Protein: Response regulator
Organism: Novosphingobium anseongense
Amino acid sequence: MAKRILVVEDNDLNRKLFCDVLKSQGYAVEPVSDGLDALDKAKNFVPNLIIMDIQLPNVSGLDLIEAAKADPLLRMIPVLAVTAYAGKGDEERIREAGADSYLAKPVSIGPFMVAVKGLVERPAL
């Protein structure tokens, strides 16, 4: 069975790119454009990985990561944060919120897939 990845990204081009690349690698993908829908979609889709944009309209990706890590159904799902925020201290804040890994935009496909595979294929704790 294909590993499932939830892609939370409000930018249409980025979301399509992430989804197309992941699908081409054999993953089942569920795109989410509105962060307000992300946690409900995660509970229904039960992904093996959540790719989370940090700068979303209506809600912060940091808040969504914290909420996911506080939820008994979602807390074990690894989170890859993807953000245009790449300033000093940003990675630390993102990891403190509960992200397992972090990539700064613009994202190159090679490092993106290395990060995805590292999180999806890692053994369960």
The radius of gyration is 13 Å. The chain has a mean pLDDT of 94.
